[in-house]
Amino acid sequence: MPVHADLPQRTPVICGPTAGGKSDLALDLAQACAQRLGVNAEIVTADAFQIYRGMDIGTAKPPTLERRGVPHHLVDLVDPSQSADARFTVDDWLTLARRAIDDIRARGCLPIVVGGTHLYIKALLDGLFEGPKPDPALRAALALLSPDQRRSELERVDPLAAARIHPNDDRRTIRALEVFRLTGVPISAHQRQWDQGQPNDQFLLTILDWPADALNRRINARVKAMMERGLLEEVRALISGGRLGPSAREALGYKQLESVVRTALNASTWPPPPSQIEAAVESIKIETRRFAKNQRTWLRRLGTTPGAVRIDAATMPQTTWAMTVLKHLVHTP
Fold it and tell me: Which of 92, 134, 149, 319 has the least C-beta neighbours within 10 A?
């Protein structure tokens, strides 16, 4: 099939903090491409939790009716009951994302990559960071340490990684310690070398910038809306069906509501007491704000990408975001 004459050579990649408006921008850009260029666009999602079927509300997965007819790829790939041993990896996503991008372009359409899992975005732009292979015996030994012991060691051997990794993120903490013990070099140093890649003219990276105060208000509003849409019932359905596996339950919202839901189900007292729900909701807001703070570290790294477009989301009207990206997209660097 011939490629459309007006099909931009670069693939737009949209990233930014959680609740920052990335999905809306991707849909607006898809519509702008259709109206201004006569090119249909399809969205490739870069989100580590939107891959799970049945986890819709808490992952902010755009409902089908709100996708404006734009095809979405790399959502609903696996069941959330997936075991830790069969965990969906960055390499899995990267393989599927490259395949989707190539297929979309082969059909004369424009792929738009969008998501808040910035490790996925970084891997797409610069290739996958190749660290040492996992050492099961070492991981088992690290798992026997208390979370405080692991955190203390990480802060001592790799303070830069400790600043990026949330204290409750045991998986990434163990991986960082594993890399250090196997190589004698902090994982942050390995990643600095990874950051020294060459400019990639295949992609146009767009970063949505938000000041913390404005973003926190958006986060609080989003959590409230998720609860109103039925997040509590969504978590209940997953748990009742035995489908909330070890990796899926780490998702924000699900993690905070899980104990509340399980306690109520075990006691056969549904719904849970309002005070418990309110406490869980407040915890979701707090942890999401902390997550957004950690995302800013990733966004600073991604912001060094040559030619990256930064949008000051708090001051630039949202109605102009898509056209800003489109102008850069049709301009050949």
Answer: 319
Rounded CA gap, 159 and 214, in Å?
29
Provide the percentage of residues in the chain whose pLDDT is more than 70: 94
Coil, helix or strand at residue 210? coil
Find the distance separating the first CA and the last CA of the chain, reported in whole Å: 27
42 touches 70 (CB < 8 A): yes
pLDDT, residue 1, reads 36
Per domain, the residue ranges of the chain are: 11-130+192-330, 136-191
Q: Is the dihedral of CA 49, 53, 59, 62 positive or negative?
A: positive
SS3 sequence of 285-326 = HHHHHHHHHHHHHHHHHHCCCCCCEEEECCCCCHHHHHHHHH
Does residue 140 surpass a pLDDT of 80? yes
Average pLDDT over residues 147-159: 93
Q: Name the more confident of 160 and 100.
A: 100
Measured from the Cβ of residue 236, the count of other Cβ atoms closer than 10 Å reads: 20
What is d(CA 304, CA 234) in angstroms, rounded to the nearest whole number?
A: 39
Torsion of CA 76, 80, 83, 88, to 10 degrees: 30
Residue linked to tokens 């799970």: 52
Compute φ and ψ for 15, nearest 5 degrees. Answer: -135, 170
List pLDDT tens digits, range 18-40.
Answer: 999 999 999 999 999 999 999 99
Q: Is the pTM of this model over 0.90?
A: no
Give the model's pLDDT for residue 193.
57
Measured between alpha carbons, how far is 320 from 94 in angstroms, rounded to an integer?
30
DSSP helix, strand, coil percent of the chain (3-state; round to 5)? 55, 10, 35
CATH architecture classification, 136-191: Orthogonal Bundle (1.10)
Residue 6 identity:
D
